[in-house]
Amino acid sequence: QVQLVESGGGLAQPGGSLRLSCAASGFSFSTSPMSWARQAPGKGLEWVSGVLSIGSPTYYADSVKGRITISRDNAKNTLYLQIDNLKPEDTALYYCAKGLWATGDYWGQGTQVTVSP
User: Fold this and answer.
1) pLDDT of 113
2) CB neighbours (10 Å) of residue 56?
3) Per the CB 3.0–4.6 Å rule, which of 40, 47, 78, 111 could disulfide with 92?
């Protein structure tokens, strides 16, 4: 069955960086577009970034463009999200999802990112 397991979240200070990972199994990762979405406390789900199966092109929400980089290692069946210059508004539960726009049926359990001084 499809499994997506996120990791790498935690507590970070504003201006810092985090690298999130998503280990995928149970499907053909190397041929699947993938994406990240997040849900901040009390808010709805926000699509953050997507990447095609070969690693490009990449797509970003305007709210994170310039601070976030999505990448993938198809040999390791792993999706990544690098977040730089962290801001308090980046505090959220981050999910990886199968598909480019995070609208499909397969999601991970999420990894919490908290940005606080």
Assistant:
1) 98
2) 10
3) 40
3-class DSSP state of 32: coil
Would you give the distance in Å from CA 38 to the centre of its chain?
A: 8
With a pLDDT cut of 70, the percent of the chain lying above it is: 100
| pLDDT tens-digit series, residues 7-38 | 999 999 999 999 999 999 999 999 999 999 99
Rounded distance between C-alpha atoms, residue 110 and residue 20, angstroms: 10
Report CA 112 to chain centroid distance, whole Å. 11
Strands 10-12 and 111-115: what pairing? parallel
Burial of residue 19 (CB within 10 Å: 0-12, 13-18, 19+) is middle
**In this predicted structure, what is the pLDDT of residue 103?**
85
Q: What are the structure tokens assigned to 40, written together?
A: 């901040």
For 31, the token pair is: 């041929």
